[in-house]
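Quick one: structure tokens for this chain, please?
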Amino acid sequence: GVTFDIHFEKADHLIKGAPQFLTARTAAYLLSCGGKWMNREQDMGEAGLRQAKRSLDPCGMIRRFYLTAKTEVI
């Protein structure tokens, strides 16, 4: 199946249900385009975003890794 990578989403949080509507419509559209997987990127450690991602019943969540140079790169 095809995987779509969602880098960011913006919705007016003052409008109740706007973020959920955006996610549902995006998923429906990607499904109609042959999508099987939707990677919604990181939740930046924000509890609300993490809960929103978990509420979609994900097939998995990948642990975040950091890469740090041991010496200065020129």
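The helical segments are 18-32, 47-54.
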